[in-house]
Design goal:
three-stranded antiparallel beta sheet; 15% strand; 9 strands; alpha+beta
């Protein structure tokens, strides 16, 4: 079997690794213009400018229409817009701000959404307003939410958003403003449902704004909505109007309770250290008194043991000494009159001045009662 080594284009074998490509013929501009002029004459007719041939008029009309049709493909994209070019309904490119051209309709068409303007969406009793959409009336229920401690709170807030991806924005969500509104309500209810009402009304407002914005952005990204959330701003946070008076009473009662609790804690902080100090002092006094009493008792016991030992060694002397000591204790502070027993044997009668003795007070004994 013979092989025809002529290459894929029928050429002979060549040592050149790159095949020879056919060279284009040289363009004859004059020939091209002559053929175009002849074709135009055939369309417009062979007569002069005054030739009233219908064929000529139809040709002129078609030519003018073609010129305007081709010129309709020019379009201007504003600085705040993006030009999304569609070819038979399919996205082919996104044009930046400036002058551009697309194939005239119905082949291609262009959509130019606003991608730089920050839109504001208000949710709550104050109404729903979007800067680029028709205003809608909001329902009072959209601002009422259930907190984590099963209380109802009304929240009016604004969501600021803009277009991030014009293609997703145009084709993945049907009504962007309504989608942002519904997603914002769902996200805000989820955030509020995890908190108690008191922190919501006081110190948790900034945290709610941040968490709600992050959750809204996450949900919109899941939908591929082409929208970025710039900010969530709380406008009003309050209990429902029918119960606001009762709620304020409860809050005042809580404030009073907190104030009394703080006062009680302050009193406890003041009285407890003093009570502990007094208790420590009393304990130290009791310990001192105990040591004193024990020492005195030990001394008395030691003295008694010494007396008992001395009494066992010399009973008469000890008895006499104890008698004298007892008399000293008994008669030491009393008024005394000592009579000499020898005076009675001599016949002398002692004179006692009883009135003088009664007037003179008795000297109290040392350490005793008068």
């Amino acid at each position: 079997m013979s092989w025809n080594n002529n290459g894929p284009w029928g050429a002979g074998p060549s040592n050149n690794p790159r095949p020879n490509r056919p060279q284009p013929a040289e363009l004859d501009v004059e020939e091209w213009l002559r053929k175009g002029r002849d074709q135009l004459r055939r369309i417009l007719g062979d007569g002069g400018p005054k030739d009233p041939s219908p064929r000529r008029w139809w040709g002129m009309a078609i030519t003018v229409f073609a010129i305007f049709w081709l010129a309709s493909g020019f379009f201007q994209v504003s600085p705040n817009q993006a030009g999304v070019v569609l070819r038979f309904g399919r996205v082919v490119r996104v044009e930046q701000p400036g002058l551009h051209y697309h194939l005239p309709a119905p082949v291609e068409m262009v959509l130019m959404p606003d991608v730089t303007t920050v839109n504001q969406l208000k949710i709550g009793d104050s109404g729903h307003t979007d800067s680029n959409e028709t205003d809608q009336n909001s329902e009072p229920s959209e601002s009422r939410m259930l907190t984590g401690d099963e209380n109802i709170v009304e929240m009016d807030y604004s969501v600021f958003w803009r277009v991030k991806d014009p293609v997703d924005y145009l084709f993945n969500i049907r009504n962007p403003a309504l989608t942002v509104k519904l997603v914002s309500e769902s996200a805000m209810r989820e955030v509020v449902g995890k908190m108690e009402i008191q922190p919501i009304l006081t110190e948790k407002r900034s945290q709610i704004e941040v968490e709600a914005a992050e959750l809204i952005q996450t949900m919109l990204d899941d939908y591929h909505g082409g929208i970025t959330i710039m900010q969530v701003q709380l406008l009003n946070v309050s209990p429902p109007q029918p119960v606001v008076d009762a709620f304020n009473d409860v809050q005042r009662a809580r404030a009073d309770g907190e104030r009394l609790r703080n006062e009680a804690q302050a009193y406890a902080n003041d009285i407890l250290p003093r009570a502990k100090g007094d208790a420590t002092k009393m304990l130290q006094d009791a310990l001192g008194y105990k040591e004193k009493v024990v020492s005195i008792a030990k001394g008395e016991a030691s003295r008694f043991e010494n007396v008992q030992k001395a009494y066992a060694e010399a009973r008469d002397v000890t008895t006499t000494r104890l008698y004298f000591e007892a008399m000293e204790d008994v008669l030491g502070g009393a008024n005394k009159i000592i009579l000499d027993p020898g005076a009675a044997k001599s016949g002398a009668v002692p004179y006692l001045s009883l009135p003088e003795m009664m007037k003179k007070p008795a000297a109290p004994a040392e350490g005793g009662q008068p």
